[in-house]
């Protein structure tokens, strides 16, 4: 087992999930409650990674963040580093790629909260943020937890985007999925089998957990 | 003064266009009466700040709640209103106590605890503190919702169809209760309803809404006694509304004296209370002579004032000491051979009179 890869994978998955909680929850809440005409466009943009080959996303991500691009130069000035082939780059791409896995469950959870409860909270003097934390979240936590777990698990198993954006650099972008690929290339089937079995069991456990959440449904 | 002049339209949907200026009087109850789709709930939502009108303004006292021109639109939490939603919108994940205390945000804890205790008392919710909304009856849920709405001592109460979620019998009971509570709260209230009984029981002022517009407004009696247009008459529905004080109650029957005549009807309240008696024109029998052998317990001498043909029927205006409207077939009218100025008798069964407490 490549323990360095395991540690890196968990770090990437944890940070991706955290970032998605920070930007995904407000985004999903907006999607669930807005009446703006261009909402479907944002919906579609969030969902695109579901259909896109990871290589396509990785390719455009590289094109957009290379050292000669505006984003790349800004990044270089701010952090004195490049986005491609760095851990930050892998994290950014991973957040983008996992957006639908988190935001879609969040959104459907928020949309299932009776709108009148939100209005009632506002009429009782609660600000929008307090309404969110005191009414919406307590009534949609299974959906939120599902989104976070799915995003975490999906990041753990991600291959294409990490390889495209991060290369395969130990300590920077060599996650478990990539280490399995390397093992197979090196004909080390025993090593590949060990790591694969762990990932398989992890995936089954995660799905069993989310399905049990769904069966429970929303509380009350 | 509540100064309202708004136009609001849902995308591809119906709209409302309303204008009124009402003095703000702490004990004044206004009912916005309209059939479903008349836009009455939309008006209430605009007042609460839940919808943003496309045009106009809403001013409460000297506070501008909304002004399309200057772009002011206070969010609901800043308007100082208490809203009772149609099916109460109680937070399902919070107990009765915590539903009430939700409104206490920003208050010192000790004040909040005291206010919760006070409201539990006033709204007869003691003993239910730790129940969840789903464990309450409809009437109890409504009391919790109303207690929650008045927690912050709002300057205006907005009630959306407060009784429509209840069955008829419970509704009548809760209406009485609501009547007492609203008046004891001393907060001006606007109530949206499609049920004329709500207006007759609760309202000092009635505003009639049809297709998003106000078609008539005035004191409840004015509106019910003299609907100005056919649409208003249809909304008001009852043909004769009489208001009087209950002189006595015996065996569940009330004796009410109006215009020198004694009227018997099912008692809506104790003796001494006011009541509104609703009599439908089709329930009035016209006879040429008094007859003691008919079942109707109300028999009044009357003078015919008017007769107008309405399709196969004739609407007869009678003066019994009060104005009474009767509806008979054209055949009957021909057979009776009455004309304005003639004397006759009007008979109404006590069971057909709807007596509402006021």
Put the structure in a nutshell:
The complex is a heterodimer of chains A (220) and B (358). By secondary structure, chain A is mostly helical. Chain A contains ten helices and no strands.
> Treating each run of at least 4 consecutive H or I residues as one helix, how many helices of chain B?
9
Helical percentage of chain B: 10-25%
> What is the end-to-end distance of chain B?
25 Å
State the major sheet of chain A: none
- What's the assembly state of these chains? heterodimer
Note the beta-strand portion of chain A. Answer: under 5%
Order of H and E elements of chain A: HHHHHHHHHH
What is Rg of chain B?
23 Å
Per the principal axes of the C-alpha atoms, what is the gross shape of chain A? globular
Q: Largest interface, and how many residues on either side?
A: A-B, 20 and 25 residues
Low confidence ranges of chain B: none
The count of β-strands of chain B is: 21
CATH fold call of chain A: MetI-like fold
Annotated CATH homologous superfamily of chain A: MetI-like
Specify Rg of chain A, calculated over alpha carbons.
19 Å
Overall residue-averaged pLDDT value of chain B: 89
CATH architecture of chain A: Orthogonal Bundle
